[in-house]
């Protein structure tokens, strides 16, 4: 069942649609900053998938993802009044909030790991359906290793190699310099190489195996 | 990044695909519902709300402009299915000052918002239609052949109906509620000492929470089938068009009505905007959780006393949001490790893992934790039985048998005794 609104006495109906916002970025940002409810819905529609993907890339498949997506949007809507960029910066700004939220989640969990009966690194990762067995094995092993990286290295690595973001975008999302991101990525790669030494398939893949 | 070339890049793509393959669909409708609550009347203590209030006038203008934009060729024509049904869901709509706004449901039901009224469609699917009347007056028509139950909430009141036409008014500034049934029957649930009022054609109910009294607005109905004894108000003929009730009519209240009137348990401000506790008390758990999110779930779990944290966790649990329930419970245990509620929280974490997540390993952990911390606690029997059940479901047969023996030794007639026997305990 669906619902829509019309004003009584007019032949054509009326609807507070989010579709219009999707076409008009300036108007959309203005409406969003003015607290227009339809704009908030459009904001969610437009960025929810991206926010979810960033969270999954950094945290892995996790039951808390919906709550964290919600947290990102609540933060964003509370802070949108202070946003000073143009509409084209909104996605990057939202990504930054998502990364901030994911970082907080990782740190919070590490502080109370004892509350979990199963540590994240012990959780089985899902199987990809179309990867070669070697690549699937290597990917599953690498996903487990991600949980052992320091938070900032993990974020940089995930955004670069899983989400395939450009270095400059990652720097913006992490609110740091390009040079810092490069250093974090280099450290993450070195650490993964080291940690992967015990996994023959993963180690072989990282050294140029063909999976 | 272009096409992956290095082994690391190819590995990253495979990792991402593996994640995508395993992740569940995002419950967008639920999340959008929470975000929709941000448009509810804000508490002045929140800084971002000041900006909201300051721009309220501009927002109204923008809304009206949008309404007019929709009158062009791309507009949704009355009677057609909405082009984007999600757009209406959770959105607040305000009727113009001089015109009605009709919210139509594809099934045929409609809510006619009188001039100046404000409402929000909270749900509109095959299972239920739910609308919140924020302020003003609305006439609801639910057709005879509509199988979908309707709920219209107004302040702390909830009107449920299947087939009927009724007019409902709510003035939050005066905490006044009034409903008149023109056709069919409705049920009104409100802060009336747990009472539910059933109203039929020609009957009406009026409550003024500021004045704590149910107010009759008309004479008893002529129909002999009407159980007048339970009816707060009854009307003779078709009731006149309702306008938001005015407090000035309170002087006309009979003493009899006043003496039997319920006493509100909260101050007027709270009645105008029900708290999450009040909503939970009314059984509106999803609304209660939405309200808790609106005022800041993280703040609540960081400041509420232990007993209220348990209540918040229950609210989330009944709203089927296990993540929020777990958050409230784990915070309770962290902040009040020595409180009796901490033990209950541990047990409840086990229940959530068992009932909502089917995570039997985690359930075992929490039931064991409860038993370690409170071997003689009030929930010890249940926790031991649940532990046994969790072990059985997790495929830990020998552990389940050992627990079964332990259970029968302590609770030979307990509710899990049958299971214990089936597991092979003597």
UniProtKB/TrEMBL annotation, chain A:
Pfam families: Sigma70_r2, Sigma70_r4_2. Signal peptide: none annotated. Gene3D superfamilies: 1.10.1740.10, Winged helix-like DNA-binding domain superfamily/Winged helix DNA-binding domain (1.10.10.10). Keywords: DNA-binding, Sigma factor, Transcription, Transcription regulation. It comes from the Bacteria. The keyword Secreted does not apply. Transmembrane segments: none annotated. Residues 143-188 form the RNA polymerase sigma factor 70 region 4 type domain. This is RNA polymerase sigma factor. Residues 43-113 form the RNA polymerase sigma-70 region domain. InterPro entries: RNA_pol_sigma-70-like, RNA_pol_sigma-70_dom, RNA_pol_sigma70_r2, RNA_pol_sigma70_r4_t2, RNA_pol_sigma_r2, RNA_pol_sigma_r3/r4-like, WH-like_DNA-bd_sf. Belongs to the sigma-70 factor family. ECF subfamily. The lineage of its organism: Bacteria, Pseudomonadati, Myxococcota, Polyangia, Nannocystales. NCBIfam families: sigma70-ECF.
Automatic annotation (TrEMBL), chain B:
The keyword Membrane applies. It comes from the Bacteria. Residues 257-275 have a biased composition (Low complexity). SUPFAM superfamilies: TPR-like. InterPro entries: Ferrdict_sens_TM (IPR012373), TPR-like_helical_dom_sf (IPR011990). The chain crosses the membrane at residues 48-67. This is FecR domain-containing protein.
